[in-house]
Amino acid sequence: MTLNGWIQILVFCGIIILLVKPLGGYMHRVFSGDRTLLSPILGPLERGLYRISGTNEREEQHWTTYAAALLLFNLAGFLVLYFLQRLQGSLPYNPAGMTAVEPGLAFNTAASFMTNTNWQNYGGESTMSYLVQMAGLTVQNFVSAATGIAIAIALIRGFARASGKSIGNFWVDMTRATFYLLLPLCIVLTLAYVWLGVPQTLGAYINATTLEGAQQTLAIGPVASQLAIKMLGTNGGGFFNANSAHPFENPDAISNLIQMVSIFAIGAALTNVFGRMVGNQRQGWAILSAMGVMFIAGVVVCYWAEAAGNPLVHALGINGGNMEGKETRFGIAMSALFAVITTAASCGAVNAMHGSFTALGGMIPIINMQLGEVIVGGVGAGLYGILMYIVVAVFVAGLMVGRTPEYLGKKVEAKEIKMAMLAILCLPLAMLIFTAVAVVLPTGVASMGNAGPHGFSEVLYAYTSAAANNGSAFGGLGGNTPWFNITIGIGMLMGRFLVIIPALALAGSLVAKKTVPASAGTFPTDGPLFVGLLVGVILIVGGLTFFPALAVGPIIEHLAMIHGQTF
Fold it and tell me: How many CB atoms lie within 10 A of CB 204?
């Protein structure tokens, strides 16, 4: 580890902290329906869209109606994206002549982008036409991110309102998230990326002659616009197979920093939105503090492991950290930081190959996802994910002091605990059961690129990434098979909607409750004690659930490495 590396990490953390309050304040005004700087331009467009679609922006929905609208919208998006892929050979804007995507892969990809996962069992530049990239994948990048933000805002209303029946209007929340937040920021980011050298064109691929005289086809396309939303919306799906390790997607250190900040910006700012909407910004800072403690711990372990490197390599007289699978223009510090950021948020973009990390360095991204990606998390998903853990934490606190648990004046009773636990337990259900089946089936084992615990980690990472709606891959696993395309697709759907439905049900239950005034016996939830309790609950639940699987994979691999064995 180097001083320069730590300075870069601290610069990133400082930028995120500085963005939280102003971006959170802007988002609060947007979702409260207040006037913003963009209202004179976007207001008429927003109202015109409501008139065309027959939406009344003042008419709010019960949680069941909100959930039904969300599910129908996502189903429509899934079908459109699926058929775009199946018909792409007959559609325009296909200069490379891409053929139709086969059914299993089309299902996997449609489920992936619709759920904000962006897992890719294909090479983007060799599989998807410009039209599918733009009208299919990029559109889903926007609306899946807006859906996550809408759910978070709806759940916040459940905590903030009292004795109500409605939690907002899905169509209005999604429209405002797209119009006032995602689109304007993406326009700015796209221009910045083009300035830094990222391609943005509808022209055909370029044939070039290398210095050795060989012919090479350079894939280009509308990269910058997809790159902007893939990072800001924590989507992660790369235009190129190498993702943000590709120089056309991530040319230099400046673009790398912009991408890392983009991944965390909205998720971190939503904690401030929460504090503003419940009338106490300290509550938001407490949530962000809990996220920050776990994030810093992950960065320290991952950076240390990668900087320490492999002792077997050191024995050969090669000193230094583990640079395998990393780009020299980023180095160990920024590769480790990027890996922790992208798996703490449900982004999935990578600037280094996680399968080439050391055993402990690669374990941190897995843990980040297994905890439900509540460490900032995906846009919206991180906040509503950690609010589930908060419900469990205040329940535990209530048991400790022998009184009915409450949070922000709302009594937490049996229904709320059931909904929170359903949302929390659906993730290990998808992650562990599919992994267990895959590593004993011949078709699953045949796709593993490595033997032993590393091969097990490849499969565990794949299903963990799918259910956590992350989308990053460990590498080495040949996932483009009927088994993995279907089961990973199902895992993505489970990880998205088996969390969303309990979250909205929780919002509907809470919004109907009266607010109880604080008393001398009320457990404060905006201080260090609660932050510690929340972190402890998250780690204990995650540790008890996933430690056996981690022991079989990265932990055994690390112990074997110490004793001179690699896989």
Answer: 12
- CA diameter of the chain: 79
Among the residues of 310-380, which ranges form H helices?
A: 311-314, 331-344, 359-370
Place of tokens 């350079």: 218
CA dihedral sign of residues 126, 130, 132, 137: positive
Instruction: Identify the residue whose tokens are 């400082």.
Output: 14
Q: Quote the CA–CA distance of 494 and 496 in Å, as a whole number.
A: 5
pLDDT digits (tens, 9 = 90+) for 126-166: 788 889 988 888 899 999 999 999 999 999 999 998 888 89
Q: What is the C-alpha to C-alpha distance for residues 110 and 74, in angstroms, rounded to an integer? A: 10
**Contact predicate 304/313, CB 8 Å:** no
Cα 207 to Cα 216: distance, rounded to the nearest angstrom: 6
pTM of the predicted structure, to 2 decimals? 0.92
Torsion 445-450-455-458 (CA) sign:
negative
Q: How many CB atoms lie within 10 A of CB 64?
A: 12
**Do residues 74 and 110 lie in contact, with contact meaning Cβ atoms separated by under 8 Å?**
no
The CA angle 235-239-245, to the nearest 5 degrees, is 85
The b-or-e profile of 66-91 (16+ CB within 10 A means b, else e) is: bbebbeebbeebbebbbebbbebeeb
